Amino acid sequence: MPENHGVACALMHGFNWDKWTTGKPADRLALIPAGQEHILKQDDGKQRWLQVVMELSRFFALCAASDEATEIRDEVSFFQAIQAALSKQSIQPDTEELSILLEMGTIHRFPDQWLIVGIIYPPKPAPTHSQQLGLSLGQ
């Protein structure tokens, strides 16, 4: 876990995320797009970030009760928030063929459990025929 944490910290080098733990909710939310931009500016940053945070999350889930994990829990939650935001950008299925789209994610208190964090109902396609059919009342 320390190696993955170190790599994630190195990828965020030069980015100040102190407000993640001390700021107001609006300040914390503002850090997510700024963190995304910081990662995307790096060579192959997105792919490296998604990989290292996935591995870090797995290790963290296995030893979340340890003192070492407790020390970095806020950083891991920030890293996971950036990971989720970057993942949402890359997953865009063809919603015209779906009747419902579930957005899945994790939260830092339960990093090993997937939760439904959003539901999207795509618009129904317009009917192909232009006239409405009448009801037959048995006449």
How would the blueprint of this fold be written?
Layout: H1 2-11, H2 19-22, H3 25-40, H4 45-62, H5 67-90, E1 101-107, E2 110-120
Antiparallel strand pairs: 1-2
Features:
two-stranded antiparallel ribbon; 139 residues
Shape: elongated
Helix content: 40-55%
Number of helices: 5
Low-confidence spans: pLDDT under 50, at least 5 residues?
A: none
Report on this structure.
By secondary structure, the protein is α+β, with helices and mostly antiparallel strands. The chain has a domain at 2-94. The protein has 5 helices and 2 strands. The protein has a two-stranded antiparallel sheet with strand order 1-2. A hairpin with a 2-residue loop joins strand 1 (101-107) and strand 2 (110-120). Helix 3 (25-40) packs across helix 5 (67-90). The longest helix is centred in the middle third of the chain and has 24 residues, at 67-90. The protein starts with a helix and ends in a 19-residue tail after the last strand. The mean pLDDT is 77.
